[in-house]
Write a structure and sequence with these properties.
Protein name: Glycosyltransferase family 4 protein
Radius of gyration: 22 Å
InterPro entries: Glyco_trans_4-like_N (IPR028098)
Shape: globular
Number of strands: 14
Strand content: 15-25%
Largest sheet: 8 strands, mixed
CATH architecture of the largest domain: 3-Layer(aba) Sandwich
Number of domains: 2
CATH class of the largest domain: Alpha Beta
Helix content: 40-55%
Number of helices: 16
Pfam families: Glyco_trans_1_4, Glyco_trans_4_4
Strand order of the largest sheet: 3-4-2-1-5-6-7-8
CATH topology of the largest domain: Rossmann fold
Organism: Aquincola tertiaricarbonis
């Protein structure tokens, strides 16, 4: 098949997040399909931006995937700058629609940009090509900005998002969701649930060292921080990922104040909250916390394999009733970490896999107590937890498995859709 994949934030191992579009596309290319990725030249979630873009789009081949980068303005935060960035990307893709159809001849068009407005552009392209239209759900917009950021449901941006979400459920031939508990919400907004398929996040086995081989060496500052904590006899709690409000890192810092000297916290990453969190660490004298800049994705396995417990936390917000699908949790489990999960959600992979301990969200005392409980276990018991997590991911959450599930959903419902179109 020829697959046209719209993902505003698509990245690659060299550029950074988002990784899911790259990994799915790479598996499809390996299976003999052709993939055209459409992405913006600037994204706040990437570690690096593609170079040489502008004033027009630039094409690039990455591991067999055809990327087309559209020049978009840089922005910070979630204000008007980001809205302009979104509008610029969608307008350019819409303008490029006929050329894309002639060049790619897509059988499948996937709208997958986190925000739902790309469904209008994808629908136009799919109509021109008589292709199967797929809507891939990362988060529920506008519900996510409403419940996570306090946006009014009557804000113009929320109203536009709602119109787009409703259109997606009405017009898509297939809806693929990473979140597992979305049935009721989507049905309320017009989705025929026969179109819905759940394909969660996962990991790529290629990113992980084979048994008996060493992972790429850690950057010196990270290796030194871990070695110092180990030499002091501390149990190391690790966090690797984005540093934004949804990640509940204030709760982790509050827990670090309560946890005592037996634990040392090593945080690796970047994000909107990084500077403020660094100030907290310095102003409150949190000597048992080390913050370090983000490391390349290739070094994540070595980092996680060097910690004793991995932390992942969430805010206490209603949106998580629809389920969660965090990338970093898959990494934690693949690394064989015992996990402290601070969450209240519609699903809990840590509990399912029995690979750690789950405590309530936004509760520093519960997090501190949970970490001490895990730290008190014999190392062999934590290792057994980690082994269960790794087995769970390998069975259910590798991208070769997920890519096949995705295309099986497209093929099954797509065949029905194409028959209906022909009729």
């Amino acid at each position: 098949m020829n697959i046209l994949y719209l993902n505003h934030y698509a990245g690659s191992p060299a550029l950074g997040m988002e990784y899911r579009p790259y990994y799915l596309a790479r598996e499809w290319v390996r299976a003999g399909h052709a993939v055209q990725m459409l992405a913006a030249s600037f994204s706040h979630v990437r570690a690096r931006q593609p170079q040489g873009v502008g004033p027009g789009p630039r094409d690039e081949l990455i591991d067999g995937i055809d990327y087309r980068w559209y020049p978009t303005p840089a922005y910070q935060g979630n204000g008007l700058g980001r809205v302009r960035n979104i509008a610029s990307f969608l307008w350019q893709v819409r303008r490029d629609a006929r050329r894309l159809v002639e060049r790619v001849k897509p059988d499948v068009v996937i709208a997958s940009s986190t925000y739902p407005m790309d469904i209008w552009v994808a629908r136009h392209i799919a109509g021109l090509a008589n292709a199967v239209l797929v809507y891939e759900v990362h988060d529920l917009w506008p519900l996510s900005p409403i419940e996570l950021s306090g946006m009014s449901p009557w804000h113009p941006f929320a109203l536009v998002c709602q119109a787009a979400e409703d259109a997606a459920y009405r017009d898509a031939d297939v809806v693929v969701s990473m979140l597992p508990r979305v049935d009721e919400h989507m049905a309320e907004h017009g989705l025929d649930l026969r179109k819905l398929f759940i394909v969660p996040n996962g990991i790529s086995p290629d990113d992980w060292p084979a048994p008996g081989t060493a992972a790429p060496a850690l950057r010196d500052d990270v290796a030194q921080a871990l070695a110092a904590a180990r030499a002091a006899g501390r149990t190391i709690v690790g966090y690797a990922g984005s540093m934004g409000r949804p990640n509940a890192l204030d709760t982790l810092l509050d827990a670090a104040k309560l946890a005592g000297d037996g634990l040392h916290f090593v945080l690796v990453g970047d994000g909107h909250e990084r500077a403020r969190l660094q100030r907290r660490i310095a102003e409150e004298g949190l000597a048992n916390v080390s913050w370090l800049p983000p490391i390349p994705k290739a070094q994540i396995p070595a980092f996680l394999q060097a910690v004793d417990i991995a932390y992942i936390g969430w805010q206490r917000v209603p949106i998580y009733r629809f389920g969660i699908a965090p990338n970093k949790l898959m990494d934690y489990m693949m690394a064989g970490c015992a996990v402290l999960h601070s969450v209240e959600a519609g699903n809990d992979p840590v509990a399912e896999a029995r690979c750690g301990l789950t405590v309530p969200p936004e509760d520093p005392q519960a997090v501190a107590d949970g970490l001490r409980q895990l730290a008190a276990l014999p190392a062999e018991e934590r290792a057994a937890m980690g082994a269960r997590g790794r087995a769970f991911v390998q069975a259910e959450h590798t991208y070769p498995v997920l890519a096949r599930r995705f295309l099986a959903a497209v093929s099954r419902n797509g065949a029905i859709a194409m028959h209906a179109h022909a009729a």
